[in-house]
Amino acid sequence: MLKSLDAYQSLEAKQQPTWSDPGAVSAARADLASQPPLVFAGEVDLLRERLAAASRGEGFLLQGGDCAETFAAATADKIRDRVKTLLQMAVVLTYGASMPVIKVGRMAGQFAKPRSSNTETREGVTLPAYRGDIVNGYDFTPQSREADPSRLVRGYHVSASTLNLIRAFTQGGFADLRQVHEWNKGFVSNPANQRYESLAGEIDRALRFMDACGVDHTALKQTEFYVSHEALLLDYERPLVRIDSRTGEAYDTSGHFLWIGERTRDIDGAHVEFLSHVRNPIGVKLGPTTTADDAMRLIDKLDPEREPGRLTFITRMGAGKIRDALPPILEGVRAEGAQPLWVTDPMHGNGITTATGFKTRRFDDVMDELLGFFEAHRSIGTIPGGIHVELTGDDVTECLGGSENIDEATLETRYESLCDPRLNHMQSLELAFRVAEELKRATA
Ligand SMILES: O=C[C@H](O)[C@H](O)COP(=O)(O)O
Ligand SMILES: C=C(OP(=O)(O)O)C(=O)O
Ligand SMILES: [Mn+2]
């Protein structure tokens, strides 16, 4: 088992930092290997079952959070607002589509970033690119941009405290459905919030009705909430693998759900090999050049037993491409009898950079890719099983459009992401209402 877990070391691992002190990397890995797991095997198994249900059309995955979490933003308020935003979106989807929603944060470990370029140049000065807080600092100085292995250990501890607060919120009464109005408080007033308020009012009435009838709804007091990140940095992921004492099987205990990015999904690469040996549910991002054959080879390697819930394909094609690129993949995979969970990431195929240098996305393009995803599944007869979005509970101005109609000039007012632009609270709710309509149609 351990031998196969380490087989990835002889393969090419893309997008890894260049550490200058190998001794410090070994020390950090040994430290991580001695820490308690962040998640438990039983929770991971339960999530796999939930995802299996979604792949049969009996649930829907809502996965979202920052593009790049930062150590500085792991504060109580920011974590709470992201959790609240996801809970609100989940309510909109659950109520709108009468469908159980599986809530998975891009949280508690989403710290490592693949980059298009190894370097960044500003005013004639070239330094290593920022690769996420778990690797180096964002400040544009040689010292900050140096890959620092002690950040691996810090990343673990920040993940632990983030996850601790998430567990407290979601198990300790905060996620009680009777708090459905409370989750909306503190966010700036806007049309999406008003629409949410009226839906929350309907839920309140339904709960009072259940109370009056004497229905026991203890189940509504807590909610399952899982965490996920891109398993990019193998010096972080490998030391966090633990062998489950119940079964003797390996779990990557850095998160419940781990995904492989578009840039590191080579079938012969280190990431696919490594993740093929852990029991966690695994996602793979699929960009617009993916063929049905690529998808099948990933299935054969990552899910040879065709175990329901094991494999999720997260397609990120771009609004202009999804309607052509996705159907042949869906058809090819179905023809082979495989049934992965199909999820849309309507963000990463729709990036643009403004003349003033802001990385952004148009809300309309995000919506269009979402609609294209539902259309593609409708045309082939496969199941649209979830959404994967970059979002925050904060009132940022990073994506263009939405009902506030954020324009290019407004982007600079509250652009806080260190990597990709996120939907703000209002845009996230707007998106959820739209997806609920599509889901209702898909399940009608
Ligand atoms: O989050 C995804 C990637 O890290 C990001 O899109 C890469 O962006 P870049 O082109 O600025 O490197
Ligand atoms: C890097 C990301 O996506 P992709 O691998 O799809 O480009 C991401 O999800 O932030
Ligand atoms: Mn991103």
From TrEMBL:
Q: Which reaction does it catalyse?
A: D-erythrose 4-phosphate + phosphoenolpyruvate + H2O = 7-phospho-2-dehydro-3-deoxy-D-arabino-heptonate + phosphate
What GO terms describe the biological role, i.e. biological process, of this protein? amino acid biosynthetic process; aromatic amino acid family biosynthetic process
Q: What is this protein called?
A: Phospho-2-dehydro-3-deoxyheptonate aldolase
Q: In which family does this protein belong, per the annotation?
A: Belongs to the class-II DAHP synthase family.
Q: Which UniProt keywords apply?
A: Amino-acid biosynthesis, Aromatic amino acid biosynthesis, Cadmium, Cobalt, Manganese, Transferase
Question: Which residues are listed as membrane-spanning?
Answer: none
Give the EC number.
2.5.1.54
Q: Which residues bind phosphoenolpyruvate?
A: R106, E262, R263, K285, R316
Q: Where does Mn(2+) bind?
A: C67, H348, E390, D420
Give the cofactors, semicolon-separated.
Mn(2+); Co(2+); Cd(2+)
Instruction: Enumerate the Pfam families for this protein.
Output: DAHP_synth_2 (PF01474)
**Free-text comment on the cofactor:** Binds 1 divalent cation per subunit. The enzyme is active with manganese, cobalt or cadmium ions.
Top enzyme category: transferase
Annotated pathway, please? Metabolic intermediate biosynthesis; chorismate biosynthesis; chorismate from D-erythrose 4-phosphate and phosphoenolpyruvate: step 1/7
Q: What is the lineage of its organism?
A: Bacteria, Bacillati, Actinomycetota, Actinomycetes, Micrococcales
In alphabetical order, the GO MF annotations are: 3-deoxy-7-phosphoheptulonate synthase activity
